[in-house]
Amino acid sequence: MRTLIFGAGNLILTDEGFGVHCINHLEENYVFPPEVELYDGGTLGIMVTHKIEEADRVILVDTVETAGNPGEVFRFEKEDIMLNRLPVKLSPHQIGIQEMLFISEMRGACPDRISLLGVIPSSLDPGSDLSPVLSECLPRVAGLIVDELRSLGHEVHARN
Questions:
Q1: Beta-bridge mates of residue 38
Q2: What are phi and psi of 149, to 5 degrees?
Q3: Which of 6, 61, 75, 78 has the fewest CB atoms within 10 Å, i.e. the most exposed one?
Q4: Which residues are listed as membrane-spanning (predicted)?
């Protein structure tokens, strides 16, 4: 089973880049088997829909706008996303996750198993570093992903 960890976001708007920072954190701190792909989707949106379509299982990481406090993590499954129960994507310039999945669904290529780990941002100011709140949150979200991959039978090891 091929699993894709897809980090979305804009690295020049502080916390909006959380998904990409998460991919970088995972690459720096863990070793993954060949059937697990870490992918920096950045702000490419529809241009990288094919990456989702190539996987059997997808875990998306991004920021979401929803009630709660900065740093809170929410999990949404494919049904939540497809039935419009997902908070609005924060990046006004990019196509949203829902649109990416709808396109894949229309092409008959959308994986059945898709999850989104959405984090509430603290700042969307210009800057390349995460806010302190999301910097503290990053290892926890990475740990959730690693735990899930291990529960799916993937051998993930911490780097020495």
A1: 5
A2: -60, -45
A3: 75
A4: none
CB neighbour class for 120 (10 Å; exposed up to 12, middle 13-18, buried from 19) = buried
- In one letter, which amino acid is 128? S
- The full DSSP string for 96-141 is -HHHHHHHHHHTT---SEEEEEEE--S--SSBSSPPHHHHHHHHHH
Q: Is the pLDDT of residue 68 over 50?
A: yes
Sheet holding 36-42, edge to edge: 36-42, 3-8, 57-63, 113-119, 73-77
Retrieve residue 108's tokens. 């008959």
Mean pLDDT, residues 66-87: 82
Closest CA to 15 of 139, 134, 141: 134
The number of C-alpha atoms within 13 Å of 153 and in the hemisphere containing its C-beta is 4
What is the C-alpha separation between 138 and 153, in angstroms, rounded? 23
d(CA 112, CA 4): 13
The position carrying tokens 């049904």 is 79
0.90 cut: is pTM over it? no
